[in-house]
């Protein structure tokens, strides 16, 4: 079908899916799904076998599915453009590399690693800080442009190791229009004669990427800014093959809050999880992460901030993606997570919370848990906080938070004992939040003290913490016997 938008997310399985990779996938997904019949392809770029990580592909697929970005074609979802792993397409690339050699746009290079090192050393000594294998240096190297034809043929016949390099013109301006940055131009003298086919017969990223994007009929290449410097080599190859290049869009870098690119090291020092798997393990709401990532370098042009994946699909366009870097604001992500937790009904949250409770050795009663969830919703940032901060709903506090103990004053025990007398007189069936509150008011009036003087010790005694959900409905849920037992113990322990 003419005019169908086809995009691809093409990660390398060299490690777990980075959060920046998930954002690239998201922008591709939103762009594809925002066009009628748009197709989102997952292609695994596994040509670098030395850095291949066994479980990385599974992690990439799991991450996309978790985030709600199911791909239309890819490993395990065959379309007519497969296979979708580059390691399974090896023979295809060889033919195209040979075609470029025959056309005079590429050449065989027989240089050994030592010879390449010597060339770089020689050039550095003569004052070239970043030596390259290019239009100038290629003429002093061991390749099919400098060796006699017979010798080249002999080397090939004898199975001598070689690579195929792209023959980059010496003086040419390479210009293309980027959907985000406008017109971009590069001088060819700044480019090296890129290796296209390695000595093991595997293609490099550059050749495989161009050939696959063409054969898979990809219409738009949306990828990170770090690939911008490779784009001119890709444009040259499209020109040499006589193919129409796809439209290109290079997304802004994700920046660290302290400035500079969000590297693994920076993320670690700033407490930002770097891989998608970390967000899954830390039980973030997938909708929150997706909503947050969509705003990393894109905005809808108004003040709105909360949008589902479906809404983002309708709103997204490349012309609203910024050129400048986008700062990863972890606090903002937490804000999104809190929002999505509050939006979900208790029934929907319960299965996840039950699983977390069981991991903590607690088997909650469903009806009881469904009463706790609304009480705690306004207080939690992540779903496991329902259990870690709400543990007092299930078991007596074993110890009291250090910070909270500082708020236990000389008259705390006396006030609590006065309150205890009131509680003991309440009939079990009238042990309700409003009764508990009015009783507390009577005690503080009788002792002529402020609300906090009794409220804080009561919270510490019954929950072990100096903060938490609304106290009186919490005590109503705990019930008379538990509340009294905990107060008596705190009076003994804290005096």
TrEMBL record:
GO terms for molecular function: ATP binding; glutamate-tRNA ligase activity; tRNA binding; zinc ion binding. InterPro entries: aa-tRNA-synth_I_cd-bd, aa-tRNA-synth_I_codon-bd_sub2, aa-tRNA-synth_I_CS, aa_tRNA-synth_I_cd-bd_sf, Glu-tRNA-ligase_bac/mito, Glu/Gln-tRNA-synth, Glu/Gln-tRNA-synth_Ib_cat-dom, GluQ/Sye. It comes from the Bacteria. Keywords: Aminoacyl-tRNA synthetase, ATP-binding, Cytoplasm, Ligase, Nucleotide-binding, Protein biosynthesis. It is found in: Cytoplasm. One of its GO terms (biological process) is glutamyl-tRNA aminoacylation. Residues 363-490 form the Aminoacyl-tRNA synthetase class I anticodon-binding domain. Its EC number is 6.1.1.17. It catalyses: tRNA(Glu) + L-glutamate + ATP = L-glutamyl-tRNA(Glu) + AMP + diphosphate. ATP binds at residue 264. Pfam families: Anticodon_2 (PF19269), tRNA-synt_1c (PF00749). A motif ('HIGH' region) lies at residues 11-21. Monomer. NCBIfam families: gltX_bact. Belongs to the class-I aminoacyl-tRNA synthetase family. Glutamate--tRNA ligase type 1 subfamily. Catalyzes the attachment of glutamate to tRNA(Glu) in a two-step reaction: glutamate is first activated by ATP to form Glu-AMP and then transferred to the acceptor end of tRNA(Glu). This is Glutamate--tRNA ligase. It comes from Halalkalibaculum roseum.
